Amino acid sequence: MSFLKCEKTVVAVVMLLSLVAPHLKGQRQNDPHRPPCTSAPCQKIETSLRSKFCGASPFGNGPKNGCDTRYAKPFLTGVNVLAAFDCETNVTDGRPKCRQRTEPSTAARSILLRQMRRLGLPAKAEKDIYFTVWQPSSAKWFLAAADYGEAKGSQLSLCQVILVVSPGDHVQELRKVRFQNTNADKPIVNTWFPMGIADVDGDGQLEIILEGDAYEDHWLEVDKMQGDSFRKIFSGLGYYL
User: Fold this and answer.
1) What is the pLDDT of residues 83-97, one digit of tens each?
2) pLDDT value at position 21?
3) SS3 letters for the chain?
4) Which pTM does this prediction carry?
């Protein structure tokens, strides 16, 4: 689980890396995170994701075809977990305390640190980065993510990057959050968290599944290799409050 996602899940006051919820009804009806899913390929992806990540449906205030993803666990069948961390709630202050369970390789760490510096993360904050590295056993590329988040009172500092690294250290940036400060109660930043690597459209190729998080709004996204890079092919499900 991402450190930033753990913050969001464990204590609402420091829900990390989010976007202010839309306040107008029209914004919900024209939801940018849940465009119409009417084609057969889209519906096949939606059905696959629903079977792996969804609880009660519908959930919260909608959408009607949405679902509870709060307890979804990463789907990693056939994927080697090369770096991971976990978090638990501190009984004293109620905030998550995390530890890196397995360290990334020197090469993966170097790539992620370089990207985080480009996103403006101060050098003094690098010791508080948490890393995730997944590599499918059938692929030559790997997924690498770095998360930084620190809440002090009403202020939240954060930074995030999710990459795909191919042979020759070719790096594609899938998602990023530049280093910034935001309000801990109502963050105004979109974020994404790795949820799995699987063939969700049945074509024999692996896709990357991410959870998108915004303030009181959570959805799933899928990236697929098209040509020599990954592109988003699905966004939907999840719930909002």
Assistant:
1) 999 888 777 666 678
2) 35
3) CCHHHHHHHHCHHHCCCCCCCCCCHHHHHCCCCCCCCCCHHHHHHHHHHHHHHCCCCCCCCCCCCCCCCCCCCCECCCEEEEEEEEEEECCCCCCEEEEEEECCCHHHHHHHHHHHHHCCCCHHHHHHCEEEEEEECCCCCEEEEEEEEEEECCEEEEEEEEEEEECCCEEEEEEEEEEEEEECCCCCCCEEEEEEEECCCCCCCCEEEEEEEECCEEEEEEEEEECCEEEEEEEEEEEEC
4) 0.87
Contact 189, 181 (CB under 8 A): no
The predicted-structure confidence for 7-62, as pLDDT tens digits, reads as follows 544 433 233 333 333 333 334 568 999 999 999 999 999 999 999 999 999 999 87
CA distance linking residue 129 with residue 123, whole number of Å:
11
